[in-house]
Specification:
The complex is a heterodimer.
Chain A lengths: L1 H13 L5 H32 L12 E6 L9 H10 L13 E7 L6 E7 L7 H5 L5 E3 L5 E3 L9 H5 L6 E2 L18 E2 L5 H5 L5 H8 L5 E5 L6 H8 L15 E4 L2
Parallel strand pairs in A: 1-9
Antiparallel strand pairs in A: 1-8, 2-3, 4-5, 6-7
Helix pairs in contact in A: 3-7
Chain B lengths: L1 H8 L12 H27 L14 H16 L1 H7 L10 H22 L7 H5 L6 H24 L7 H24 L12 H28 L5 H31 L4 H10 L2 H23 L7 H32 L9 E4 L13 H24 L19 H7 L8
Helix pairs in contact in B: 2-14, 3-5, 3-8, 3-9, 3-13, 3-14, 4-5, 4-8, 5-7, 5-14, 7-8, 8-9, 9-10, 9-13, 10-11, 10-12, 10-13, 11-12, 12-13
Classes of the chains: A alpha+beta, B mainly alpha.
Chain lengths: 259, 429
């Protein structure tokens, strides 16, 4: 077999014709490699899903989340928003077709006058509507709970923008410049908060959380919701919190206090 | 019953159109140029990004989607005429079945044309085939739409190939069932969106099916009457009277489902905000709803269609049906505009009952003004559908030579009987 392959190779180099069965074998090999290459990423993702098995009643050992304390968040402070824009290479201009991965939302109860201001970003839902509606699976949820967009698969249908109850997805409607290597963007694709996934993987908190801490407000806690000893899990066990539109049953990873 | 209908249908003579007139070529060239303009516009949008359109992160889907959904819904409805003939065995509709199938294919391609060319990355569409996510109704729709094209293609083949005529009933049943699922899928694009107050309703799926009956038949009638008038081919009163009654039933059924949808929402306190927006306070949308959808698309056609008219007056019947169909189409466009654009204009209810403000237009009613790129793109979908019909009727015998009363048979009668009766009898219903 190897002899014949070599023969084929030499024929090739000499520019002569190939034996039909050798050519066929070569084609089959190429086809096999192509199939393997095509399937490999999918198999890897499947395998990862199978490998990550958790303890303590959770399906996964890690689920990253945020706790945002609206009582501590300072009205008018945009540190988290600026940090996200700078870190991820987003525009500071809040134009109607510009991406906003995180924004400060102010709510006012018209009957009581109660008011709070706090950041809203992708809520990294357990049953994410964006993941469900995405026709290509470009919207996906990692085993650690972070919801991302695979730019290679996104066809730009914007169904996720229609489906997300938090308005957390943006569509890239312009040519992008000043991209950061850790936050690739693509014109014509959907995008949203990545929870600064590469910082998280390096053991650092997301840029917004770090900025909030630097500003001295400490209104955002980041951590592993599935680790009962983590700061976020301990805090969640102590204080009353809620999630936005909890009635929809999406299971957000971002929890709020004081709203 | 279906086979009997199928056999009787073969007696009708079909003929390609000459397609030599200046008018024909003007129409073909105009549609071709508009379709080409749509492609160029799509390339421009791809190169510049969607900021050149009126769509943004608030109004995510715009005019191309309004036209796309309208055309796709109408496509499934246009097939109904064929279904009535070969599934429900009404030989009267048999001579219309080929045009019905052709329109279904053309309208669907027109709608998909808009959807695909508006994608942020149309070149990556293959990803939806290679990596389908079957939790997404969009992924299902890709198969439902392509499947529809294939099935209707076979359906047309079986209708046009005499040897295969006996199997028309079977493939007709499949096409009919498929189209019901397809329109359910289209309605569910919106019905499954729990996030938006205007959608999030299972009623949208049956509502879309009923609207498809009305839009499809209206477009079918317009094409049939317009085409036959230009070609100088005759249409008899019997067929017109039947189409007129059928359209009235469909329009009334749409109004019923619209009423159910809005009454349900009005009854639920949580949905009253969006209802008051659509029906009263929402600027252009109440105008389009009451003036366009309800009055022009519902009341006007019903009055026209149900008004007693002398059955023998073919000209009057044709004018009534044309006017009513045009009103249904205009009202239908208003309806889809209100559903798609109005549904997005109303702000997301992240904190129901509270005033919400942010730099990302939270809590704000969103305005949408279509810009020229998406307008050209939207119209190019209609152009490609028209182009397909124009070319197809010239190449293949889709259109009957005559639809006079003595040619079309009525239910229970064989064509031969109808032919010998000389078309003097009046259709039973």
């Amino acid at each position: 077999m190897s002899d014949r392959s070599q023969t084929t190779g030499s024929l090739d180099e000499e520019g002569g014709g190939q034996e039909p069965d050798a050519l066929r074998r070569k084609l089959l090999k190429l086809a096999g490699a192509a199939v393997a290459l095509t399937l490999a990423p999918g198999v890897t993702v499947l395998a990862r899903d199978l490998v990550v098995k958790g303890s303590g009643g959770h399906k996964t050992p890690v689920r990253y989340g945020l706790l945002i304390d609206a009582n501590a968040c300072k009205s008018g402070c945009e540190s988290c928003v600026r940090a996200c824009q700078d870190y991820n290479g987003l525009s500071h201009d809040p134009g109607p077709d510009n991406a906003q991965w995180i924004r400060k939302v102010t709510i006012v109860n018209p009957k009581t006058g109660f008011s709070r201001s706090f950041p809203v970003m992708c809520q990294h839902c357990e049953n994410a509507a964006c993941v469900d509606v995405c026709p290509t699976g470009a919207s996906f949820r990692r085993p650690d709970g972070i919801v991302l967009v695979d730019k290679h698969r996104c066809i730009g249908c914007r169904y996720c923008l229609m489906a997300c109850p938090y308005k957390a997805r943006s569509f890239v409607a312009r040519n992008v410049s000043d991209q950061k290597p850790w936050a690739p963007r693509g014109k014509g694709t959907a995008e949203g908060c990545t929870m600064c996934v590469e910082r998280v993987e390096a053991g650092k908190p997301p840029a917004c959380v770090a900025a909030c801490n630097r500003a001295g407000h400490k209104a955002m806690v980041f951590g592993n919701l599935h680790d009962p000893k983590s700061a976020i899990a301990l805090r969640l066990s102590e204080v009353a919190t809620t999630t936005i539109r909890a009635d929809l049953g999406l299971g957000p990873s971002v929890h709020y206090r004081g709203i | 019953m279906g086979e009997s209908g199928g056999r009787s249908g073969t007696k009708v003579a079909y003929r390609e159109i000459e397609g030599q007139s200046a008018g024909y070529w003007v129409a073909v060239i105009a549609c071709g140029l508009l379709a080409a303009a749509g492609v160029v516009t799509a390339l421009y949008m791809r190169a510049e990004g969607h900021h050149v359109t009126g769509m943004n992160n608030q109004i995510v889907w715009g005019l191309p989607h309004v036209l796309a959904v309208f055309l796709i819904v109408a496509a499934s409805g246009a097939l109904n005429v064929a279904s009535i003939a070969s599934v429900f065995g009404r030989p009267l509709y048999k001579p219309l079945a080929r045009l019905s199938g052709l329109l279904a294919v053309a309208l669907l391609i027109g709608g998909l044309w808009n959807l695909v060319l508006d994608l942020g990355r149309p070149g990556h569409l293959l990803a939806a085939v290679l990596y389908p996510n079957f939790r997404s109704i969009f992924a299902w729709n890709i198969y439902l739409y392509t499947g529809f094209l294939v099935i209707v293609g076979f359906y047309l083949w079986f209708m046009m190939e005499r040897r295969l005529n006996p199997h028309t009933h079977a493939v007709g049943v499949l096409a009919f069932l498929w189209r019901l699922v397809l329109t359910t899928g289209t309605g569910s694009i919106f019905g499954f969106l729990a996030a938006r107050s205007a959608y999030d309703s299972a009623v949208l799926a049956p509502l879309f099916i009923l609207t498809s009956f009305a839009f499809g038949l209206a477009i079918f009638a317009l094409v049939l009457l317009g085409g036959f008038k230009v070609l100088g081919r005759p249409v008899g009163a019997r067929l017109l009277a039947r189409l007129k009654s059928l359209l009235a039933v469909f329009v009334a059924a749409v109004l019923y489902f619209v009423a159910v949808y809005h009454l349900t929402n009005l009854y639920m306190a949580g949905h009253r905000g969006v209802e008051s927006f659509t029906l009263v306070t929402g600027g252009i949308f109440p105008v389009l709803f009451w003036g366009g959808q309800i009055f022009i698309g519902g009341v006007v056609p019903l009055v026209l269609l149900l008004r007693p008219a002398p059955r023998a007056d073919v000209g009057a019947l044709a004018r009534t049906l044309t006017a009513a169909s045009a009103a249904v189409v205009a009202g239908g466009l208003a309806q889809i505009y209100v559903i798609i654009i109005g549904g997005q204009s109303y702000p997301l209810q992240m904190f129901p009952g509270l005033i919400v403000k942010s730099s990302f237009y939270d809590g704000v009613v969103h305005n949408y003004v279509p810009h020229w790129p998406e307008t050209v793109l939207a119209l190019s979908g209609i152009a490609i559908a028209a182009l397909i019909v124009l070319v197809a009727v010239r190449l293949l015998p889709f259109l009957p030579e005559s639809l006079e009363d003595h040619v079309v048979s009525v239910h229970g009668e064989r064509t031969a009987t109808a032919e010998t009766a000389g078309g003097q009898s009046v259709a039973g219903t």
